[in-house]
Amino acid sequence: MSLSMRRVLGSRALRPPLVRTLVSMPKLIPEAVPTGSTQIFRTVEEVKRWRRPQYTCHRVIGLVPTMGALHEGHLSLISAAVKECDHVVVSMYVNPAQFGPHEDLDSYPANWDSDLEILAALEKKLAKKISAVFAPTTKEMYPFGFPGQEVDSKGSFVIITPLSERLEGKSRPTFFRGVATVCMKLLNIVQPDKVFFGQKDIQQSLVIQRMVDDLMVPTKVIVCPTVREPDGLARSSRNVYLGTRRRKVAKVLHDALASAKQQYLNGRADRSSILGSANGLLESTQATQVSLPAEERVRFEVDYVSFADRFTMDEVEEVDPSRGAIVSAAIKMLPVELATPGEDVGYNGGPAVRLIDNMILEPSG
Ligand code: AMP
Predict the structure, then answer these.
(1) Domain residues of the chain, as ranges?
(2) Given ligand 1 and candidates 71, 201, 228, 355, which is best to mutate, with the most ligand atoms within 8 Å of its CB?
């Protein structure tokens, strides 16, 4: 091996396998969550070492990719995985590549200790084991250096177009590139038989499904239903940014989509009925809020309201009865203008929060 090649590959590539095993011996006793059963892996090598014997035992392995800050939405995915698989790996990694340069990477909620407690409580509730948490560093996930968050950053990326360019991809041009790339890495590391995603991020689930199909990744993508708060707001790690006032108004996103779905259930399948209903509710709520004094009102912008094909997310004029459709929307809750004394304005000072949600209009024929 040339000297320059050694520099590129780093010292790891130089160690013969036996030496590598001995050097990493201390990691054979992994950390564990409070129940003492879930193993915590920090390195790719640890996961691979754990994974290897599972092949010969024909164990079904499930992977649930998350960015931590666990809530009921994540837990529903983990519960589904535990039901369907012999071993479940939950990855917790805040992937910088899926945040734009001006997004909330630095303030993204991180609750490592409470995440582990939540997992331990879930294990108890399910009376079943979560085999491992994989929580790597960015150096581990991008061993040749993090390529950056800019649109023109150079590096090894998985890019799924045109799906990734639509809707969320328009507002966040590097988002799906970051998601697809990190998910491909996770799939290669864990090699799960099944990987679990949430319908809450429907476009993300479709991008991953397309990636798996197109690149022939040997795993099954399972999409689990959206878990909601009692008033309908989809659970999200970012909801903590909202604070009390904005939290109350944020339910409009769910209500608008639910009214669109109701149109469909009432027999309307055309674009203007379905979108008209959702847009009408968003606009009337905006009008009501604008009329309130600054210390009471909530301002939000509508990024998009979409009525699209169930798989390609191409905008459609009518629901195709054999395919169904998706109504989805994104709104940006703007920061509170004038806080009253002692008001809870939200985590990290209540920055602008972008919320997304969707409803599936099931095929009818
Ligand atoms: P995140 O940690 O936000 O990247 O989400 C990890 C996974 O949890 C993704 O597949 C999300 O779609 C899924 N997820 C997040 N929120 C919900 C929810 N409210 N209901 C169901 N799945 C969710």
Answers:
(1) 3-224, 237-361
(2) 201
CA–centroid distance, residue 71 to ligand 1 (Å): 9
Of the listed ranges 12-16, 54-58, 317-321, the one predicted with least confidence:
12-16
Q: Which atom of ligand 1 lies closest to the CA of 238?
A: 3
CA-based R_g, the chain, Å: 22
Tell me the pLDDT tens digit for each residue of 265-306. 999 999 999 999 999 999 999 999 999 999 999 999 999 999
Does the structure show a pLDDT above 70 at 147?
A: yes
> In the prediction, which pLDDT does 192 show?
98
What is the atom index within ligand 1 of the atom nearest the CA of 74?
Answer: 8
Whole-structure pTM value: 0.90
205-243 pLDDT, tens digit per residue, is 999 999 999 999 999 999 999 999 999 999 999 999 999
- Catalytic sites, residue numbers: 74
Query: What CATH superfamily classification does 237-361 receive?
Result: Pantoate-beta-alanine ligase, C-terminal domain (3.30.1300.10)
Ligand 1 centroid to Cα of residue 23, in Å, is: 37
CA of 4 to the centre of ligand 1 (A): 42
Write the residue with the smallest CA distance to atom 11 of ligand 1.
198
How remote is the CA of residue 110 from the centroid of ligand 1, in Å? 15
Domain 3-224 sits in which CATH superfamily?
A: HUPs (3.40.50.620)
Smallest CA separation from ligand 1 atom 13, residue? 198
Q: Which residues line ligand 1 (CB under 6 A)?
A: 66-67, 73-74, 76-77, 197-198, 200-201, 224, 226-227, 234-237
